[in-house]
Design goal:
Elements: H1 2-16, H2 44-51, H3 53-56, H4 71-85, H5 96-111, H6 118-123, H7 131-143
Length: 149
């Protein structure tokens, strides 16, 4: 009986490896990208790409372990949820009020340390947003006319 359970579990693990989630990959920068809406200060767009775009754009750079299920499903879920909250690749499609609100929320979640997610930082320590980077983003957001506290 125990041998059958072990074999069943092993087979289940093998079978779920065949069920890979759809990848969030696109070619280049979208015509709707935030960089095509606003002039971004030197380095700001690169910083956003490096630290935010994996979950908040149409182009995720996947780590090797994305192919291991259920980890891949979990990552796909995070990316889907992240894009629902803010998608830099589709920023041009937001109306002015929604875009302003997204930028206000961006500053808020960075200042409160809610982003990047702690679980993401475990494997991507270089994605940590410094106090100086948060201030750069806040200053830029204010410069485009968005009121932030």
């Amino acid at each position: 009986m125990t041998k059958r359970i072990v074999i069943g579990v092993v087979l289940l693990i093998i079978v779920i490896q065949l069920l890979q989630p759809t990848k969030n990959k696109s070619e280049g920068i979208s015509e709707n990208d935030i960089s095509n809406v606003y002039a971004l200060p030197d380095g700001l767009h690169n910083m956003l790409v490096q630290k935010c775009y994996d979950c908040h754009s149409n182009n995720t750079n996947y780590p090797w372990y994305v192919h291991i299920q259920p980890i891949g499903w979990w990552l796909a879920s995070h990316v889907k949820e992240g894009k629902e909250h803010l998608n830099f690749s589709e920023f041009k499609t937001y109306d002015k009020g929604r875009a302003d609100h997204k930028l206000e929320e961006l500053v808020e979640v960075l200042e409160e340390g809610e982003m990047p997610l702690k679980s993401y930082l475990l494997m991507h320590g270089d994605a940590k947003v410094t106090t100086e980077e948060t201030q750069l983003i806040k200053t830029w957001v204010k410069s485009v006319g968005v009121v932030v506290e």
